[in-house]
Amino acid sequence: MEPFKIHILGCGSALPTLRHNTSSQVVEIRGKLFMVDCGEGTQTQMRRLHISYNRLSAVLLTHIHGDHCFGLIGMICTFGLLGRKMPLHIYAPKEMKSVLDILIEKFCRDLGYDVVFHDVDTTCRSVIYEDRSLKIETLPLEHRVPCAGFLFTEKPGLPHIKRDMTDFYNIPVSQINNIKNGADWTDSEGNVIPNSRLTSPADSPRSYAYCSDTRYLPSLHRELTGVSAMYHEATYLDGDEKSAEQYCHSTARQAAMVARDAGAGKLLIGHFSSRHTDEQEYLRQAQEVFADTILADEGMVYEIK
């Protein structure tokens, strides 16, 4: 099974602390690296966690608040200094383009590579990236500025070849792809060997949802039904519901309610407020609703199996 890993670079909220960096993750899937959000200090975290600058193909920004994008321009400049040639694709709300254009013109002339901007419509669910093995969709969220989450979904793979059976029937290597795609095999005596004897079912497609800053959305789970793993911001604790509503954030318990109602396989929570020092309380409150919850933390690598 190809790797599907979530690298946590930062999981704090707006105020950087000695405990947490601001928001950033790298999603590693089938050999491709996608960064989601790029708070201050992200490129340093990449070095610390040995994540290759050159393998990063795209940055996806959920919204235009500093704790989610202040690290982007510095990282773009660093890539230029290191001689990057491959284009870097930026997916972000349209408001980011004019800001990014000014910053690149001011600080990053003659980069040596292209920065390709893609508008993200934060008002609807839509596909923003697709290749043979992966699809990335937006998830409309509700924050104080236009904001979207992202859903990464593997495409169904081909069945697995039963090597003992193909060896037994002396099936040539040249026919393996045909069998993976559903063909039966006819041996030299004319006997038809059904495909089901030669293959085992493909791995179930995996998925990961990143739900950035948002007020609690009771209907969000409908967009996430059966997701393998999800991250949901959990800025506040019980008793802070009025602040959460006022500032368009969620509590740990509310994040867990979304995961529970979606039937998620695992919930990672983060975006912890600097006012709360006991993060185990976030975990306790979330696990009262959804037991398969873990705390995000810098340096964590969560692998979706």
Poorly predicted sequence stretches spanning 5 or more consecutive residues = none
Instruction: Give the number of DSSP strands.
Output: 18
Say what oligomer this is: single chain
Sheet bearing the most strands, described?
7 strands, mixed
Strand order, largest beta sheet: 6-5-4-3-2-1-18
Q: Number of DSSP helices?
A: 10
Mean pLDDT equals: 94
N-to-C series of helices and strands: EEEHEHHEHEEEEEHHEEHEEEHHEHEE
Percent of residues in beta strands?
25-35%
Rg, rounded, reads 22 Å
User: How many angstroms does the end-to-end distance come to?
Assistant: 8 Å
Global outline: globular
The share of residues in helices is 10-25%
Which structural class best describes the helix and strand composition?
A: alpha/beta
